[in-house]
């Protein structure tokens, strides 16, 4: 089975990487880019029958820093 | 309007970051993790009416390295 985990910085946490992308898009002539946030997506190839609780556990223990990041699990 | 761009390494391109995550999950006692690929997700806050073609252009010019990465645009 496959699962996808999206990890984003929480709202209010400064995202310098996203800001850099926003500036770069402006410099390239793309107008109207009001904000950019950059996060991670992790695609997991798991043994069949792995529960969503286990995936959540992986997020809490390793994949996301829950102090500053939020995550979303999507089982494919 | 908002758009989300997913950028992943193409199949066959070595993903050391994903491999590191796979090992770390194994070390934490999570069995059955067969593969991990890590990519980026970029959330764009754009002026209303920005066309999908413009977003694709952003991907080609800045957001993805199309030699080794594939991207997917999702307008929200």
UniProtKB/TrEMBL annotation, chains A, B:
Pathway: Purine metabolism; IMP biosynthesis via de novo pathway; 5-amino-1-(5-phospho-D-ribosyl)imidazole from N(2)-formyl-N(1)-(5-phospho-D-ribosyl)glycinamide: step 1/2
Keywords: ATP-binding, Cytoplasm, Ligase, Nucleotide-binding, Purine biosynthesis
Molecular-function annotations in GO: ATP binding; phosphoribosylformylglycinamidine synthase activity
GO-annotated biological processes: 'de novo' IMP biosynthetic process
Role noted for this protein: Part of the phosphoribosylformylglycinamidine synthase complex involved in the purines biosynthetic pathway. Catalyzes the ATP-dependent conversion of formylglycinamide ribonucleotide (FGAR) and glutamine to yield formylglycinamidine ribonucleotide (FGAM) and glutamate. The FGAM synthase complex is composed of three subunits. PurQ produces an ammonia molecule by converting glutamine to glutamate. PurL transfers the ammonia molecule to FGAR to form FGAM in an ATP-dependent manner.
Similarity comment text for this entry: Belongs to the PurS family.
Protein name: Phosphoribosylformylglycinamidine synthase subunit PurS
Species this chain originates from: Yoonia rhodophyticola
């Amino acid at each position: 089975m496959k699962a996808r985990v999206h990890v984003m910085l929480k709202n209010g946490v400064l995202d310098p990487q996203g800001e850099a992308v926003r500036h770069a898009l402006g410099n390239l002539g793309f107008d109207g880019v009001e904000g950019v946030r950059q996060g991670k997506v992790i695609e997991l190839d798991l043994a069949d029958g792995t529960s969503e609780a286990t995936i959540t556990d992986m997020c809490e223990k390793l994949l996301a820093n829950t102090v500053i990041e939020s995550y979303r699990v999507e089982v494919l």
